[in-house]
Design goal:
This protein is of the alpha/beta class. The protein contains 19 helices and 20 strands. It is elongated, with a radius of gyration of 28 Å.
Length: 509
């Protein structure tokens, strides 16, 4: 028997919002994609799992309004697949739970295009965890029904048996029902569903924007209007709603709903973004600097060739570690080139980067500043040869201090270039005061970000409506030099220290 054709189209469920709910198979498919054809509500963070070379097409870019757009989606998948491109059709939730996955699969099948379907966590299932409304409970609900509130408008009559649903002895979970909520409530009440049946609306489930309101069926429509709730939202009706705690574990997280601007270089931002997401925050990304190769590798190559002649190799950043060793490996060498050289790292993150290479630094100061690293090193490097691997710009304090007792050579293993990604949506959110915190992880980043703000955004920051979070006193000094106040300064000069400082601010503020 011959093997089936390799899929050219993957119909992938992206889950309800939280990137942590993406399946491993979905991540694998995204890594294979030449083109990602994605729904509007798919989180931009999920698109980051695709190759940077992959083309991204939002379905809203295709011709037509919502009902007329589907033939164009089908045609786009077919045309790209026939060109030999691997297409990931990325859909919110699960492709086969009110996601038109069956129609898309049928179209591909009829066109002779090999495909694979990857399930995702549907929003209705996520409610049980993220809003803590159990869909079933042996005390009050032994069944659950998933219902669309937005049937195909071309159907002659509804295929939903509303009288039966009104008597359903379990939980009703209604998708896409906000636009027809008043009608849905009236039909359920008319067919005998008690007005005092517990009900809930969960807006943007499984994201930092999640908003949950509980009420009764009779008051559901008024509650939605009074609270200003809107789509995308799920509706849950049944006794299980009364089992919800005052706040779910998800909504009780320390930074829940707080909008945090991350300004680190794009390649280094993901770790901080994911940590913020796990704490309930809504991260925005505005990379402020770019890390590039130095314009001339020759000084670095020369130092690498002489590594064994140095007594100490000192790193002041994670980038320094990554760039020096990448170059060392690229030139055909390995860790044996280090010989007996001793290692120093300015802080725990830099030390962790060395640990990933199975190297343990001999010195990591208690507080992560150049002053403290110099103080720790001076007694040890006196009369010795020291190599500093660092950026092509920054403070010269470490070199100057160590040069008083040792022979110091400094090389730039990477360049830092101001390159603020002026995303208009982020800048608009800043101007409107919708950003709660701006994280600034270096003096260079602080200068680049703050100089790029328009006058409205500057006024927001200076009024305290947007809080600047500094990673260290050195960064704080750069912020104040530009006539801005530092709202929060980390006491431990790491990304984790910044996050802890924001959490303390929330608790005391």
């Amino acid at each position: 028997m011959s093997e089936p054709s390799k899929p050219l189209v993957y119909l992938v469920g992206a889950g309800p919002g939280d990137t942590g709910l993406l399946t491993l198979r979905a991540v694998e498919c995204l890594a294979l994609a030449d083109v990602v054809l994605h729904d509007k509500l798919v989180s931009p963070r999920i698109l980051d799992f695709a190759s940077p070379k992959a083309r991204r097409i939002g379905v809203e870019e295709l011709p037509g309004q919502h009902p007329q757009r589907w033939p164009h989606i089908h045609q786009t998948m077919i045309e790209l697949a026939r060109q030999g491109q691997v297409v990931v059709r990325l859909k919110g939730g699960d492709p086969h739970v009110f996601g038109r996955g069956a129609e898309e699969a049928e179209t591909l099948r009829n066109a002779g295009i090999a495909y694979e379907i990857v399930p995702g966590i549907t929003a209705g299932m996520a409610i049980g965890a993220y809003a803590e409304i159990p869909l079933t409970h042996r005390a009050c609900a032994s069944a659950v029904a998933f219902i669309t509130g937005h049937e195909n408008p071309t159907k002659a009559e509804s295929s939903l048996d509303w009288p039966a649903l009104s008597r359903f002895p379990g939980t009703l979970v209604i998708y896409m029902g906000m636009a027809r909520l008043e009608l849905i409530v009236q039909v359920l009440l008319k067919n005998g569903k008690p007005a005092d049946t517990p009900a809930a609306v969960i807006q943007m489930v499984a994201s930092g924007h999640q908003l949950t309101r509980t009420t009764t069926l009779g008051e559901l429509d008024r509650t939605v209007r009074d609270e200003g709730l809107m789509a995308p939202a799920m509706i849950v009706i049944g006794p299980v709603v009364s089992l919800r705690p005052p706040r779910s574990w998800f909504e009780a997280r320390p930074l829940f709903g707080k909008r945090v601007l991350v300004t680190r270089p794009r390649g280094q931002a993901n770790d901080l973004v994911r940590r913020l997401e796990r704490l309930g925050a809504i991260p925005y990304l505005l990379p402020a600097v770019e890390v590039r190769d130095p314009p001339d590798w020759r000084p670095v190559d020369d130092a690498i060739a002489r590594l064994a002649s140095f007594d100490w190799l000192v790193f002041t950043s994670v980038n320094g570690v990554e760039r020096l060793f990448r170059r060392l490996f690229d030139t055909g060498r390995d860790l044996r080139a280090l010989g007996s050289i001793r290692l120093a790292a300015i802080g725990s993150s830099t030390a962790d980067a060395l640990h990933e290479l199975h190297l343990s630094p001999d010195i990591v100061p208690k507080t992560f500043r150049s002053e403290d690293l110099a103080e720790s090193l001076k007694p040890l490097v006196a009369g010795r040869r020291v190599l500093l691997a660092r950026a092509d710009r920054g403070r010269e304090l470490l070199r100057d201090e160590l040069s008083t007792v040792a022979q110091v050579e400094q090389i730039a293993v990477y360049s830092q270039v101001d390159a603020v990604d002026l995303d208009p949506n982020v800048l608009l959110a800043m101007s409107r005061g919708e950003i709660n915190y701006v994280t600034l992880t270096s003096a260079n980043i602080a200068r680049a970000v703050l100089k790029s703000l328009d006058e409205t955004a500057r006024l927001r920051v200076r009024s305290g409506g947007v809080k600047l979070v500094s990673i260290s006193p050195v960064t704080s000094e750069a912020i104040r030099e530009l006539d801005f106040d530092v709202a929060i300064e980390a006491t431990i000069y790491t990304v984790e220290g910044m996050i802890d400082a924001m959490i303390r601010n929330q608790e005391t503020g």
